[in-house]
Amino acid sequence: MIAVQNLTKVYGKRAALDHVSFEVPEREIFGFVGPNGAGKTTTLRILAALLEPTEGKAYIDGADVTKDREKVHTRIGYMPDFFGVYDQLTLTEYLDFYAACYRQPKSRRQKIVEDLLALVGMTERKNQLVDTLSRGLKQRACLARALVHDPAVLLLDEPASGLDPRARVEMREILKELQGMGKTIIISSHILPELTELCTMIGIIDHGRMRATGTVREVIARLTSGRRLRINVLDEKDAAIEVLTPLAAIRHVEAVNGSIEAEYDGDERTASDILVALTGAGIRVSSFTPVDGGLEDAFLKATSEEVG
Amino acid sequence: MNPVARALWNPIVAKEYRTRMRTWRSPFAITLYVVLLGGLGWAVFAAMTGNTLGLGGSGTNYGMYLFMFLIVFQVALLGFITPALTAGAISSERERQTLDLLFVTPLAPFSILWGKLLASMSFVVLLLILSIPLFSLVFLLGGIELDQVVYAFAVTGSTALTLGFVGIAFSSLFRRTLPATVAAYGAAFVLLLGAYVYGFLFPTDADPTSTVVPAPPAITLVSPVIPLVTIATNQPVSGYGVRVDYSRYTKGIPAAGGYCTPTVNGAMCTSGPVYSFGTNQNTGTTLPSGLFKGWQYWQASIVMQLMICAVALAFSALVLPPVRRFHLRRRRPVTAPAPA
């Protein structure tokens, strides 16, 4: 559905994007992660046909973003990292205006606006002026705006940025609903836990270069050295470490804040074998938890690598 | 809706009407406009009936004078209002960060420009319509025909359109509204007054072998001042934009201490004979020479202004799109340098 091939954007002597490539199949949610200035917004603006790449190609549903802009614009819903609202327009008028811009027939526009307001949970605010809405509500209104023409692809640039935790959860729920509706979504964010839960695929970008791309599991496996377990035992912490250290699958064991953290190579079966080894040695294990901080580790590892 | 109708009437127009008329600024501007124009009309009429400011004399000229002052003042007012309406049209969308959102819709950049322009110029048309009752008072005094009013409104409308197109061009060029507004007012000043003053600074030299008074330089017709005065008085403005080198006229040399003034019919000297350029100037408001020879002043003015409109529109259409089809500088392929 989305294909990016060797995308390069150079401003003067600075490369904002350096031969970035990735693909997003239909109905996938692609999390685009990277620190500020990594090139996320530049990539999304090129995909939205708002910026011309210096080199490389990008396609949305087969349409070249530099050559077939009109087709691209009918396929995408673009939500930038700012609100973009007008004074003196109510929420209904705001959405109706964009629906008209997207050439939706007048007879259908009222229904479209009502459905979108229901989707983003703002029906009761339909007559409120958009510029008087709170930040979280403006963000939802902007998401509704990006959906007025029922696009197959959504390009969302930092949709949760600056939102309070509640608004963030609400936004995540809406995105899940859109995922259920079959949309292909690219979502840029620096809030990693959100992406872990929401995204089916991920791309890590830093200094304009794609560090890793693939499914969340693949990226974590590729970038992190091993899987991690957090083990709590009743009294025999030192004994437990002595049992764990010689095991072949164990790469590293350390005591962290009263727990034991063990990094190992292998899968769930290996983890089960580790537990059997502990209990077999008479260690009383009170909890045995796989640590799911993999994406964060992967991100830190990918973005801390020496550039060159 | 067919493509032409869709290009001419697009959602931006309706949105602009809605947002513009919901603020207090629009009714205030309309009221101020009518009050100022009416106030000037009253002042001119009072000056004429009170025989002050040299506007007294024959009552048959009251209508003509009133019309002339009103129409020139109306252009001056529009010179202040139109740049304010259009200079922020595009740049304010940039500042509000809504321009990108319009660019990702199927609306063509030209449609965005046109929608903005149509909405702004509709407000100008509203002001012109509101001034009609004031101008109708002129007919009570006589001396002005309906066709003169139509021509004068055509020149006024064309001037406002030019200022609108130029304002939109600067609004497309500059990212911020403030520099766009300053540039638009500068351009309005040059177009309205600069072109007029040009006629004084660089007049056309009269040809002593010719039998007609030459026309002012064509560039002066960009300014509506002379065409409007010409329409009102039904004759060219004597001596404007023409330089007569009296030493080259055998019969036009003034006597010692005297001076000559170029007129429609020749150089009128305070003493000595009058040199006649001939009698083929009877129509009065026809340009006798130059690029627009045989045209009416107002026709030439409108054509000049429409040419500026075309240039401004082409410029706007060139600089507005986020991804330009034509690049001002030649691009060369760049290999991404290694990031720092």
What does the secondary structure layout of this molecule look like, with pairings?
The complex is a heterodimer of chains A (308) and B (340).
Chain A: E1 2-11, E2 14-24, E3 29-33, H1 40-47, E4 55-60, E5 63-64, H2 69-75, E6 76-79, H3 91-101, H4 106-119, H5 135-146, E7 153-157, H6 165-180, E8 184-189, H7 192-198, E9 201-206, E10 209-215, H8 216-223, E11 227-233, H9 237-244, E12 250-256, E13 259-264, H10 268-280, E14 285-290, H11 294-304
Chain B: H1 3-8, H2 11-21, H3 25-49, H4 62-86, H5 91-95, H6 99-103, H7 109-141, H8 146-173, H9 177-201, E1 204-205, H10 225-233, E2 242-243, E3 260-263, E4 266-269, E5 275-276, H11 297-319
Parallel strand pairs in B: 1-2
Antiparallel strand pairs in B: 3-4, 4-5
Helix pairs in contact in B: 2-7, 3-4, 3-7, 4-7, 4-8, 4-9, 4-10, 7-8, 8-9, 8-10, 8-11
Structure description:
The complex is a heterodimer of chains A (308) and B (340). Chain A has 308 residues and is an alpha/beta fold. Chain A contains 11 helices and 14 strands. In chain A, helix 3 packs across helix 4 and helix 8 crosses helix 11. The mean pLDDT of chain A is 86. By secondary structure, chain B is mainly α. In chain B, strand 1, helix 10 and strand 2 form a beta-alpha-beta unit. The termini of chain B are far apart.
